[in-house]
Amino acid sequence: MLNETINILNDLELYGLKNSLSNETDYITNNKMSFLEGLNHFLKNEVKYREINRAEANIKVAHFPYLKEIKDFDFDYQPSINKEVIKDLSTLRFIEEKKNILFMGSPGVGKTHLATSLGIEAARKRNSVYFISCNDLITNLSKAFKENRLESKIKFYCKYKLLIIDEIGYLPITKDEANMFFQLIAKRYENKPIIITTNQPFSKWGEVFGDTTIASAIIDRLVHHSVIINIKGKSYRIKDLVQEEIEDEKSS
To answer: Do 173 and 138 contact (CB within 8 A), yes or no?
Structure first.
């Protein structure tokens, strides 16, 4: 009977029920649940199982550089960041309000960590998310342009509910590349939000994008309906290096 039930659940693709059938049956029996109570218990577990799987799939396809959450962030080390603002952003209200988020600051202060954490939170709540470095994005857009499929590539990046573009300003961008980048930003403008991380102030974006006019147009669309978080603090990489040196001294 048990094997037959498992086969039926497998045919119906009720994998959560199938995997937990034995344990949950014992739980229902021990708690003397009625048929409807037991069925309700089984179905709730199946829904929970599917939500977990869906969240894991969303996180996997997002291409995050690592899996770090907001709870892993050391706010004490970066006191310039208002923790309450980050907690509010983690409610994902900004997605429904179509607000962009811009994390600005020197290398190593935690911009990518926070951007990734918000992205993971969004993916877990069944939002489609895509993470990409600015350099990879520009490379992909340039390649698509040469292959006469720029429009379809921009559509690809626009299909995601949340797009995260990391490390704007680390490498120079040509005027043609800036134009392609602008097309993407304009397409998502007031439609779907973007999270940006950058180590350059807006005053330097003309140099970054090789053209002040294009840079101004990009900035204008990004900052309209946005949350800008300027992180002023020490690099976490320096913190980790100092900690390693302290531990080495203690062990020597």
So the answer is: yes
